[in-house]
Amino acid sequence: MSENDYPAVLPEQGDRSRGVIALLESNCTVCMLCARECPDWCIEIEGHKVTTPATTLQGRDRSHNILDRFAIDFSLCMYCGICIEVCPFDALFWSPEFEYAAPTIGGLTHEKEQLGGWMQSVPIEARGDNDPADSASDQR
Amino acid sequence: MAISVELLFADQLLRPEPAPVRVSVTWGRRYTLWVVGMGLACCSVEFIAGLLGRTRVAADSDLSPEPGLDDAHILVVSGTCTDKLAPAVRRLYDQLPEPRYVLSFGACASSGGPYWDSYSVTKGVDQLFPVDAYVPGCPPRPEALLQGLLVLQAAIATNDVANVPAFQTQAAVLARPLVAPPTSPRRNIEQP
Amino acid sequence: MTLRTGAVRTLVECLVETLADGVVRTSVTDSPATVEVQRDRWVDSLSAAHGAGAHFFDFLTAYDELDQGFVVLVHLSTPDAHDHVIISTRVARDDPRLVTVTSVYRGAAWHERETHEMFGIEFVGAERDDPLLLPAGFGAHPLRKDFVLAARVARPWPGGVEPDEDVSKRARRRPLPPGVPADWPRLEGGETP
Question: How far apart are CA C147 and CA C159, in angstroms?
């Protein structure tokens, strides 16, 4: 059994280590499936609908959702991964990052900016075609 | 029980506290961390791996195998605290001398975690006493505990040293029974 | 499930033979085999199983079948764990009383205490009936099916919000989270009681 050199050396982690959940905001359509399926009710989402008027003569107005707030309360999260599995648009990913203890319990609620930041630590093979550089909002 | 040196300083020299005294006392508190763990559930296994396993932190530290409650500075609560056990957890906190810090390890100790909706779970030990650091996870890695201790050290460093409460928990409070006595009388059952 | 063959009888066979008309139904295809007995033959059935060699008492528990009452069940086995049986009986919801089995298996005392506090089933003749796991003054029986987890009602469900819902208006009734029955008392405007 080898000696654990933390904090001098970060531990070796498996390929699909569940450390923290990362959000790729550009993929999120505010479908609310993750918030509904979370067993701990730790995902809070707020959004609003935006309507684009029709561009052709007999076309109809198009509407889509804009994400205003996406927060995960990691003090409640049990790292089951249901939110990541249920997301139909691949907006949530596992990251092996685990160093985010906080002196206040509010510090364990990560807003979408922080969740987007975790995308940098998502393993490349897990990202698929999703580029973390897109994590900045590019709302249409 | 001998009075700790830090409390002497706090009372006599720290109003107003000169900077060198504050720095040295804070330095002493940051780097003398004796941990007592209250392992309630699964997270205690990770606590054992983190502090009692073959880690650099354990090897470099002067970890007494079983620090008594009189010597402990940090209480690490690992695992689910039920409403029935809550008085015992509170009793353990009351028995620690000042300065004491609490680290809540894992989701259950921080907020109730996956059992947040249970009829019998205390939704986080911060309902019983103030917590100084929270480590998320279900369960957290042993290294996450070590990182939580680093966060706690940083929090200690910014503590106002003069704000050491000068109370000692009343002996009567510590001697209160935790469990109500049985209501029905015990009888001996005949052997079959 | 028994691994022995030949002339040695299984626990289920012993029970059926000893109790005769006290047995309501048996199932040997379940694993382990189950025997449901009449409520007034409850202690007799456990004595018969004990006499047939089931000296290991595993657990006693219950489940709630609403209008059909509570089913109390016991898992017994021989000490070599080759032969198992689950003996169950049914008690009515409006008269949930059953004789204690501590005269046969003393280890059932804590199990009966827990079943009593969780379901409200009274075990007649039990030594102690004070709560084992619940804090004093809890006042309800949590494992009954009509016990609602109040935290799911009190806390607003994050998944109950539609993406375009204007938070300030809330004209529409919010959907109920899973686990909350539809007739749970609710105040106007979806506020918590």
Answer: 23
Task: Residue C76: name the closest of C99, C116, C38, C46 by CA.
Answer: C46
3-class secondary structure, B187 = coil
Nearest C-alpha in B relative to C47: B192
CA distance A49 to chain B (A): 32
B-chain CB neighbours of C151 within 8 Å are 116-118, 123
Chain C residues touching residue A41 (CB < 8 angstroms): 155, 157-159, 177
CA atoms within 13 A on the CB side of A103: 12
Contacts of A91 in chain C (CB under 8 A): none
CA A108 → CA A2, A90, B136, B176, C42, distances in Å?
A: 31, 23, 7, 35, 53
Neighbours of chain C (3+ CB pairs under 8 A): A, B
Range of the domain at C33: 11-124
Residue type, B83: D
Domains in chain C, number: 2
Considering only the top CATH level, what class is B34-160?
A: alpha beta
The verdict on residue A1 lying in a domain is no
A31 touches chain C (CB under 8 A): yes
| Number of structural domains found in chain A | 1
Cβ neighbours around A110 below 10 Å, total: 24
For C153-175, the pLDDT digits (tens) are 888 888 877 776 655 555 456 67
Q: What is the pLDDT of residues A4-48, one digit of tens each?
A: 778 778 888 888 899 999 999 999 999 999 999 999 999 999 999
Chain B residues with beta carbon closer than 8 angstroms to that of A19: 141
Q: What is the pLDDT averaged over residues B14-41? A: 72
CB contact under 8 A, C163 and A30: yes
What is the residue-wise DSSP string for B50-69? HHTSSBHHHHHS---SS--T
C interface with B, Cβ–Cβ below 8 Å: 50, 102-104, 106, 127-130, 133-136, 138, 140, 142, 147, 149-152, 155, 179
Chains in contact with B, where contact requires at least 3 CB pairs less than 8 Å apart: A, C
Q: Is residue C131 part of a domain?
A: no
Same domain assignment for residues C108 and C176: no
What's this model's pTM, rounded to 2 decimal places? Answer: 0.81
Question: Where are the domains positioned within chain B?
Answer: 1-31, 34-160
Q: Fill in the DSSP letter of residue A56.
A: S
Predicted ipTM of the assembly: 0.87
Contacts of C105 (CB under 8 A, 6+ apart): C46, C50, C57
Q: Average pLDDT of B65-80? A: 80
Chain A touching partners, 3 or more CB pairs below 8 A = B, C
